[in-house]
Amino acid sequence: MNKKIKILALETSCDETAAAVVENGQLVLSEVIATQIPTHQKYGGVVPEIASREHLEHVTIVIDEALRKADLSLAEIDAIAVTYGPGLVGALLVGVATAKALAYATKKPLLAVHHLRGHIYANLLSHPDLILPAICLVVSGGHTSLLLWEKNGSLKLLGATRDDAAGEAFDKVSRTLGLGYPGGPNIERMAVLGDSEAIAFPKAWLEEGSFDFSFSGLKSSVLNYLNKQKMKGEEINQANVAASFQKAVVDVLVQKTFAVAEKHQINSIAVAGGVAANLALRSALAESCLMSNRKLYVPAIKYCTDNAAMIGAAAYPLFLQKNFAALDLNAYPNLSLHTE
Q: What is the dihedral of CA 27, 29, 30, 31, to 10 degrees?
């Protein structure tokens, strides 16, 4: 296809109201994000009702700004893409309703994108030369999964979290330490000041040969440690707790990723999701890739957290396949990742 396909993409699954214009699934012509982090920080986490109202307030603003930055009109857009799940139902509905209205008014195709598929395809924004098949580690606030990303673009689930996702554990430990929200960046900043070997927190490997994850035990262990220190009246070294906790998470993520890559004889490793921005995780993955002669693909930091450019990237194959959504598209907060 010689024509340059320009997709206007929307992302409103949680606490970022985002719009972007992406050309041919890889070239970002514009991207705009209205973050809600300052709003939710005072509550220690995302408040769904507030998130929905913030999306309503900002969605048309970010769309107008994305079109302006791309120097395009709606008439020059080839399709409208939107995240339709998983996520907060009220937040998703704002994006879905807006995208449907735009598609109807402009008579443009509507493309429904799975949020996690967007995170995975964010790799193509930074690495257009990514070699498939690849093992993809998806690690975020709500998900921790290992997938086989095949040459035809299909995704096969190989392992998933059985309880808390890694990002969720970061948030809970951060709140307990009094570091606030968002937990991931706060834990990472504190961990730099600590000794990752100071406290031997447990690592859940599960049964032999399992590529699933479990972080609830680790989270509970950290909370128990903090409670015991307080009961004994002993000072808590926050930096050591953060560093030791982070190492316990990273070690499991990295070792399971490379174990599954070895089993399936895959030489490309991709990472996706908000926790992919963690520098300790990036460093450990890079070191393991160097030792095992594998290639690591990690999105630019700005494409690790929720954004609309990744939705535009994931929507492009759907456009080529003419896999258009109907105007009765709904939001699905618990949408599973299709592995066809």
A: -10
pLDDT of residue 1: 52
Find out whether 226 and 238 touch, Cβ atoms under 8 Å.
no
Within 13 Å, how many C-alpha atoms sit on residue 93's CB side?
8
Helix axes of 238-264 and 279-292: crossing angle, nearest 10 degrees: 40
| Contact residues for 88 (Cβ-Cβ < 8 A; gap 6+) | 13, 14, 46, 48, 51, 52, 333
**Exposure of 157 by Cβ count < 10 A (0-12 exposed, 13-18 middle, 19+ buried)?**
middle
* This prediction's pTM: 0.91
Encode pLDDT of 207-254 as tens digits: 888 999 999 999 999 999 999 999 999 999 999 999 999 999 999 999
Burial class (CB in 10 A: 0-12, 13-18, 19+), 302: middle
Other C-beta atoms within 10 Å of 176: how many?
Answer: 15
